[in-house]
Amino acid sequence: MMTASPANRVQVALGDRSYDILIQPGILNQLGQVLQGVGCSGRVGVVTNPVVNKLYGIEVCRALTQAGFSPFLIIVPDGEQAKTVQWLAKILDALVIQRVERQDMIVALGGGVTGDVAGFAASVYLRGIPFVQVPTTLVAQVDSSVGGKTGVNHPSGKNLIGAFYQPRMVVIDPRVLHTLSPRQWIAGLAEVIKYGMIADKRFFAFLEEHVEGLRTRAEDVIPHVIRRCCEIKAEVVGGDEREVGRRRILNYGHTVGHALESWGHYKKWVHGEAVGLGMVQEASMAQYLGICSKDVVECQDDLIKRVGLPIMMPKMKFLDLWQAMQHDKKVVKGDIHCVLPRRIGDVCVVPLVRESIRKWFLVQQQAATKAAKVFRKPASRPRLARKK
Ligand SMILES: NC(=O)c1ccc[n+]([C@@H]2O[C@H](COP(=O)([O-])OP(=O)(O)OC[C@H]3O[C@@H](n4cnc5c(N)ncnc54)[C@H](O)[C@@H]3O)[C@@H](O)[C@H]2O)c1
Ligand SMILES: [Zn+2]
Questions:
Q1: Which of 31, 99, 223, 305 gives a 20 to 30 Å CA spacing to 174?
Q2: What are the beta bridge partners of residue 335?
Q3: Which residues form the domain of 66?
Q4: Which of 256, 257, 259, 235 is nearest to 246 (CA)?
């Protein structure tokens, strides 16, 4: 039986719904043994998508079979299209057909999309059956697999249908991150930087010192990074499971980020890229409102840029941005509550006043246009010496 030493285990303390996050390179091979510790036996519905199934499906099913489980696959499509009520219904159909019972279990093997829809299915099937998160993207390993937010999208908005439903365990194998595309990898780094900004200036400094390791997915850097992010998320969620207070700080970069995602019809940026841009904008807002100094903004933006994330805002109208921000779930009685940085490692939640944000936006766009002009100005051509 695989042992979870304190070095590779983080606990999410939620009373009788507490669970462990195990972080260990190669742990995927031992998934069956690990799950014996959850107290389940019998059938395991492994929810995954074709991309992840091709890479890790066989390995996971073999590990489960070797430990005495009977796994069966439930394949959902790749991408955000799997997060719909239609695909939720298909997962439920598969569970019914397989006659899955209460002591059986669901394993969500994949990124945030798979984890969100599989977790939601687990929460409603037979009024809740055990589920385990096996996240395979950086976003999922440092963020979406921990904390129990599950759900699907509605045509009129993201994550509008869902439930708080905690997994029995989160099993993280950092090794699987090597097959992620460079774009998905870098996008995940935005969420990593977010943790430094909201809660831990020492971690932020560590990230600054290890940019090369972050970019190259260095094996001596990544497990530590994942662990620290999970510790912060576990601590925040443990104190505010349902997001009535402190958990809101996890939304730093997301008010503008979600607005940009929806403005770009979820095609222009992947989630992490939009969050990175959102952090750049929200820090700039905080400076404009006198909440943080210029140094904070420069430090943050520099790190975001160095890891390879985009930082240029598209040309857009203030009203488009403001309206897209209104659709965020974090709007309370019409007020947009936004997480803004005070210092590196310290943020506050502030209601945004439309007029001051409009002024900030104009100043911001003017500066961007000016910078773009300077950038585009052709270099003066060297004069040719005139022949006599
Ligand atoms: N529940 C939460 O608390 C929470 C938090 C953050 C984000 N989310 C949700 O998570 C989703 C985004 O998650 P994501 O960024 O993981 O996207 P994703 O699940 O779509 O995965 C991104 C891509 O990577 C591929 N992939 C996954 N693992 C791979 C691997 N190991 N190697 C190669 N390719 C791999 C996937 O097939 C997909 O094409 C969004 O729907 C967002 O709303 C939820
Ligand atoms: Zn996010």
A1: 305
A2: 332
A3: 6-180
A4: 235
DSSP-derived 3-state class of residue 112: helix
Q: How many domains are contained in the chain?
A: 2
Which of 144, 171, 226, 233 to probe ligand 1 with, by most ligand atoms within 8 A of CB?
144
- pLDDT at position 266, please? 87
173 and 255 part of one domain: no
Q: Is the pTM of this model over 0.70?
A: yes
Helix (H, G, I), strand (E, B) or coil at 315: coil
Binding-site residues, ligand 1, Cβ < 6 A: 49, 51-52, 55, 78-80, 83, 110-114, 116, 136-137, 139-140, 143-144, 147, 149, 158-159, 176, 179-180, 184, 271
- Cite the beta strand spans of 145-209 per DSSP E: 149-154, 157-164, 169-172
Residue 252, classed as helix, strand or coil, is: coil
CATH number, domain containing residue 350: 1.20.1090.10
Same domain membership, residue 256 and residue 158: no
- Give the number of other CB atoms < 10 A from CB of residue 89: 12
What is the tens place of the pLDDT at every residue in 147-168?
999 999 988 778 889 999 999 9
290 falls within a domain: yes
Residues 304, 305, 310, CA angle at the centre, nearest 5°?
90
Alpha-carbon distances of 319 from 67, 102, 263, 333, 362, rounded to whole Å: 57, 49, 11, 19, 11
Containing H/E element for 263? helix 254-263
Q: Which residues are catalytic?
A: 127, 149, 191, 233, 243, 247, 251, 254, 258, 271
CA of 104 to the centre of ligand 2 (A): 30
Smallest Cα–Cα separation from 227: which of 14, 24, 13? 24
